[in-house]
Amino acid sequence: MATKHEQILQHIDSLPVGEKISVRQVAKEMNVSEGTAYRAIKDAEIKGYVSTIERVGTIRIERKKKENFEKLTFAEVVNIVDGQVLGGREGLHKTLNRFVIGAMKLEAMMRYTEAGNLLIVGNRTKAHQLALEAGAAVLITGGFDTEDYVKKLADELQLPIISSSYDTFTVGTMINRAIYDQLIKKEIVLVEDIQKSLEETTYLYPDDTVNKWFEQNEKTKHSRYPVIDKNLKIAGMVTSKDIMGQDRNVLIDKVMTKQPMTVSGKTSVASASHMMVWEGIEVLPVVDDNNRLSGIISRQDVLKALQMIQRQPQVGETLDDIVTNQFIDINPEKRGQEVYHCSVTPQMTNQLGTMSYGVFTTIITEAANRVLRAQKKGDLVVENITIYFIKPVQIDSTIEIRPKILEVGRKFGKVDVEVYNDSVLVGKAMMMCQLIDRS
């Protein structure tokens, strides 16, 4: 049976898109305390089907699918630009297709403004009106207001008109950054993207016998199964090692591994792969927020996903991409004597104009990754790293990275990395890595 929290979430999810939600109203309708209602609404906000806006309240918005993840709702825009809603609140749940900066004559501005757009413009009342009539929402910059008849039109057309104290350039940059961040998130493969569903998962109960394991093993040819209680909550994991030498009438509860490692659907595949490698786990149960089984992932599923990620073009460039794109192999012919050059760009520096510690760590890891890949095909998991960041590196410098393999085996690699700037040692690191074979 669903908990009160889950029932409230289901109730919120069933509300029509655009409806306003209040803690008091939910508490009254679901017969729960206001504290319980508040927690459920906050959870719904995290899950992405409600949005809370200052001075407006909480509204039900459309839950995004991954394919249109990069699109923002007008409610999200309000929060991004610290905006105030002047009219058209009923349309805050709608999604904008693109934004147009109105830095041109009125006629030219309207040629670019279409239904579903967001026109970013200053205190030009006629432009506000024409944009709304064209089916576009309006964002007024500079903290300006608009005429009452424009606000009334926004209410009638259910198209938001928003005011922000920021200037046009800043607003455009903030929205663009938000869309860009969404693009990066879109490309991150999560466990929920690759997991086997509950319907596809074979599981056992604590009061099943070892004989049930043999029956399922004969049927599925698998040897690892999650164990759940009557409420679908994870009780343990049972594998072939656990039942080896056991009487077939012994209960699963007596042989299973209790409190097993689990992941949620929102865990990244990369993080799950690290857990599986470090712990030597072949299968991980996937659980929801209430520790109830929602599926499983296997090491094979994870490795396939990691291979797929490498073949996919990255739509949004992360800081790691910016750093590694600067790498130039200046000694490609000599294996075992690899040397890389890397330029220090403005994005790679801290507020003092010197290379940040985090970027230095990325450079060390990338160098170790490349030199180990030249020896063994696969990926690595950093198990231990000791860094000595000796001297600051200035913006626009070109550094030289010299990785050296100290030891490499079937499962582990040890790499020493030295970093030079103008032939002066500026940093040094020692890394121990576990190797993931993808062959």
SSE blueprint:
Elements: H1 4-14, E1 20-21, H2 23-30, H3 34-47, E2 50-53, E3 57-60, H4 74-80, E4 84-87, E5 98-101, H5 106-112, E6 117-121, H6 125-133, E7 137-140, H7 148-157, E8 161-163, H8 168-187, H9 191-194, E9 196-197, H10 210-220, E10 225-228, E11 234-238, H11 240-243, H12 252-255, E12 257-258, E13 263-264, H13 269-279, E14 283-287, E15 293-298, H14 299-311, H15 319-324, E16 328-329, E17 340-343, H16 357-375, E18 379-389, E19 398-408, E20 412-421, E21 424-436
Parallel strand pairs: 5-6, 6-7, 7-8, 13-14
Antiparallel strand pairs: 1-3, 2-3, 4-8, 9-15, 10-11, 11-12, 14-15, 16-17, 17-19, 18-21, 19-20, 20-21
Would you give an account of this structure?
- The protein is an alpha+beta fold and 439 residues long.
- It has 16 helices and 21 strands.
- The strands form five sheets. It has a six-stranded antiparallel beta sheet.
- The radius of gyration is 28 Å and the shape is flat.
- The two termini are 44 Å apart.
- 30% of the residues are buried.
